[in-house]
Amino acid sequence: MKKIAVVILNWNGVKLLEQFLPSVIQYSPEATVYLADNASTDDSISFVMANFPTIKIVKNKENLGFAGGYNEALKHIDAEIFALVNSDIEVTENWLKPIIETFEKEPLTAIVQPKILDFKNKEYFEYAGAAGGFIDKYGYPYCRGRIFDTVEKDNGQYDDNCEIFWASGACFFIRSSVYNELQGFDADFFAHQEEIDLCWRAINKEHQIKYNSESVVYHVGGATLQQGNPRKIFLNFRNSLLMLTKNLPQKSLYWILFCRMILDGVAGIQFILKGNFAHFTAILKAHFSFYRLFSISYDKRETIQTEKYYKTRSIVYQYYVSFGKVFVK
After folding, report:
1. Burial class (CB in 10 A: 0-12, 13-18, 19+), 85
2. pLDDT tens-digit profile of 67-99?
3. pLDDT tens digits for 129-169?
4. CB within 8 A of 314, min separation 6: which ones?
5. Is residue 135 within 8 Å of residue 309, measured between CB atoms?
6. Closest CA to 279 of 323, 230, 215
7. Contacts of 219 (CB under 8 A, 6+ apart)
8. What is the pLDDT of residues 162-198, one digit of tens each?
9. Under 8 Å between Cβ of 199 and 209
10. Amino acid 310: pLDDT
11. How far apart are CA 154 and CA 17, in angstroms?
C-alpha cells in the first residue's frame, strides 16, 4: 500500500479542528495525519497537541495562504501520496481506500478528487468541487454538480469514476512525485484557483486527473472567506487571468484575454447596477494586480500547452442565455 499523508492546512481554525479532526482521525488508519499551520495566533497548535497527540505538526513561519502554505509544509513531509484536506471537511468511513486503489491501478493518474457533498445539506453537492471540475474556453470554472450558483442534488447522476480537468483543493489527492515535478502550487496565487492552475500544468505534462465517486466527503465551504466576500472575488478574478496567461495555447492567448476583459467588465457593471460597489472595486483591483503580474506569469509558461483545455465553449452563454443550469455530458 502506498504511503499517504493527510495534510490539513490551518490558520486560526481551532473551532474547525475541534469539530472535524475526529472524523479524520477515526477514518484514516491508512494515513499519517499532519497539521500544516500557517502561523496561527490562536491556540490551534496547543489544542491539537493536547487532544490529538498522534497528529504531526508542521509550523510555517508566516501565513503564506493556501498555495504558499502547502508548498512550504510539504517540503517537510515524506509520503508517496499527499491528501490535501481543508480543515472544514468531514470524511467518511473508508474514504481513502478507493483513492489509494486508483493510484495503485492507474499509473498515469496523478491527481484524484472524491465526491464532495455539502456538510450543511448532505443531499446536495458542495460548491467547491462537487463531482469534478472543468473550465470553459474563457477560463470560467464549473463542476459536474455545480455551475455558477446552481448546485445539484446528488441523485447518483455522477456515481462514476471518470477523467476531469481539475480537482478541488478542498480535498485534493496528488502523487508527491508529480507535485514536486510541477514545483507545487503557484505561490503568486496565494489562494483560489491555484489547484486549477496546477491541474492544467499537470495535463500539459500528460498526467491524468480523475474523479472517484466511491470516496465521499462533506465540506462546509467558505470557512475562511465567505462566498461573495470582496477579497474572494478579487482573488478569483485575478487568479483566473493569471492562470490563462500561464496555460492557454499561444495562438488563442491574447484573444481570450481580450474577451475576458469584456466579460469581467460586464460582471462589474452588473455589480454596480445592484449597488454592490465593493464587488465592482474588487474586480477593478483584480485587473490592476493582474497587469502588474502579467510578465511574471507569462514567463512561467510551459513549452507545451494542451489544445484540449475546455469542454464547453462558453459556460456563461449556456447558463445565462440558453439556461443550461446543469452539467451536460
Report:
1. buried
2. 999 999 999 999 999 999 999 999 999 999 999
3. 999 999 999 999 999 999 998 999 999 999 999 999 999 99
4. 136, 137, 138
5. yes
6. 230
7. 86, 88, 89, 90, 116, 117, 118, 119, 126, 128, 129, 170, 171
8. 999 999 999 999 999 999 999 999 999 999 999 999 9
9. yes
10. 83
11. 27
Diameter of the chain by CA atoms? 56
Give CA–CA dist 172/9, Å, rounded: 12
Distances (CA, A) of 298 to 106, 138, 261: 33, 17, 17
Mean of per-residue pLDDT scores for the chain: 94
Yes or no: say if 278 and 99 are a contact pair by the CB < 8 Å rule. Answer: no
Residue 128 CA to its chain's centroid (Å): 7
Who's near 40: CB < 8 A, 6+ residues apart? 10, 11, 12, 13, 14
Give residue 318's Cα distance to chain centre.
23
Domains of the chain: 4-219 (3.90.550.10), 230-320 (no CATH)
Straight-line distance from the first to the last Cα atom of the chain, in angstroms, rounded to the nearest whole number: 34
C-alpha cell of residue 245: 496567461
Cell reading at 305: 500547452
